[in-house]
Amino acid sequence: MAILVMKFGGTSVADLDRIRNAAEKVKREVEAGWKVAVIVSAMAGETNKLVGYVRSVSSLYDAREYDAIVASGEQVTSGLMALTLQEMGVPARSWQGWQMPMRTDAAHGAARIEEVDTAAMLAKFEEGFDVAVCAGFQGLAPGNRIATLGRGGSDTSAVAIAAALDAERCDIYTDVDGVYTTDPRLEPSARKIERIAFEEMLELASQGAKVLQTRSVELAMRYKVPLQVRSSFSDEPGTIVCDEEEIMESNVVTGVAFSRDEAKITVQDVEDRPGVAAAIFGPLAEANVNVDMIVQNISDDGRTDMTFTVHLDDFERARATIDGARESIGYAGLVADRDVAKVSVVGIGMRSHTGVAQRMFSALANDGVNIQVITTSEIKVSVLVQRKYMELAVQALHAAFGLAGEARAG
Ligand code: ADP
Ligand code: ASP
Ligand code: MG
Question: Domain 3-175 maps to which CATH number in 3.20.20.140, 3.40.1160.10, 3.40.50.1820, 3.40.640.10?
């Protein structure tokens, strides 16, 4: 059975006309002979609205009820998409996460997919249904509860279903026509990338490029799912995310990513001894706080400062956790800065080229952007800057690494 996966994001199913537009694309693939698994997000803005309801009712909410509420957006669009297809004469039915079922772990709000059972879906394809419309973002957690996969999680639903169905391809339809050298909303000269390596896409996504959820790229890489990011509103070919061997020429830097909402915490005057980092970061890990950049200052008289960054959403939890562990850590004070952003340059060419960090630092210096923290990996350099300089930093780096598209005439 030749199966295709087509995922439509929130803007692509934002109203009934857009659902019809997406359904037309699905119909064309069915007419070309494919069985199609369509994965849908909630209508644009719907998940934010539902999250807002939860937060208005309860600040320290029960994550299982959060999931019951926020998963409902996808239930609506999956039913509407199936109905729209039926009206067009395409045999289709909807599948909620629990109906497949797509089993997840118990980490409500950010659950990981453990298994996708495709037997029932495949049986329906055999029976003559051409399309299975799957609600993205949701699965079934232990205890028979609905789970959600974290914001942007429909991308991950799509890739997991593509892997489980051994689909020919997984196309992610969205409101941009591919992966760009940086977010085209921030830098209009950003250029569409024809092919990008899984590793690069993984770094860009994890450093803030929300065009794909990080876990979707991880899964696609692990299960070798051919992935394409393309537009719902045109028929242009999109960006292929593939193995690096399939890319002819690689730039030193492929893209610039940014994460606007970061926070920096400095634990002041801790003893410079074995175990102090564990005393700080152990409780943070237990509290499910995702720590990103970490720096330890040079020791002065056996005392030192430890600085780390977290996403702004985790800031209060991080501060409360460190406060709670004050005795075991033994520090003099905490300094917090909620006014920082992270900017990263990514490229597999960095493995074989030196001087990327230096070029990055000079470009930022030329524009007067002060760097607060630096981290590197084999294919990435990230810097932390004051939030108000984030746009400037992205634009400066985009230009410094020659990423801009060709200037258009006129
Ligand atoms: P969907 O609702 O379809 O899942 P998202 O809003 O999650 O769409 O992701 C698409 C958005 O990602 C684009 O509108 C764009 O603003 C943003 N984006 C960030 N970085 C990039 C990038 N490097 N290339 C393309 N889009 C990007
Ligand atoms: N609707 C969910 C969100 O807005 C999942 C997704 O769109 O991927 O995060
Ligand atoms: Mg998305």
Answer: 3.40.1160.10
Stated pTM of the model: 0.94
Rounded-to-integer distance, Cα 307 and Cα 82, Å: 51
Q: Is 367 in the pocket of ligand 1 (CB under 6 A)?
A: no
3-state secondary structure 186-210: CCCCCCECCEEEHHHHHHHHHCCCC
Tens digit of pLDDT per residue, the chain (410 long)? 999 999 999 999 999 999 999 999 999 999 999 999 999 999 999 999 999 999 999 877 899 999 999 999 999 999 999 999 999 999 999 999 999 999 999 999 999 999 999 999 999 999 999 999 999 999 999 999 999 999 999 999 999 999 999 999 999 999 999 999 999 999 999 999 999 999 999 999 999 999 999 999 999 999 999 999 999 999 999 999 999 999 887 789 999 999 999 999 999 999 999 999 999 999 999 988 999 999 998 887 899 999 999 999 899 999 999 999 999 999 999 999 999 999 999 999 999 999 999 999 999 999 999 999 999 999 999 999 999 999 999 999 999 999 997 543 33
Matching residue, tokens 């309801």: 53
Ligand 1 atom with the shortest distance to the CA of 182: 23
Does any ligand 1 atom lie closer than 6 A to the CB of residue 196?
Answer: no
Q: Which atom of ligand 2 is nearest to the CA of 152?
A: 8
Residue located nearest, by CA, to atom 9 of ligand 2: 151
Q: In this structure, what DSSP letter does residue 11 have?
A: G
Atom index in ligand 1 nearest the CA of residue 209 equals: 20
CA distance 243 to 219: 13
**Quick one: which H or E segment has residue 393?**
helix 390-400
Domain definitions of the chain by residue range: 3-175
Residue 344 Cα to ligand 3 middle (Å) = 20
**Where are any strands of DSSP class E within 217-367?**
227-231, 239-242, 255-271, 291-296, 303-311, 333-346
389 lines ligand 2 (CB under 6 A): no
Nearest C-alpha to atom 10 of ligand 1 is from which residue?
A: 211
* Protein residue closest via CA to atom 6 of ligand 2: 152
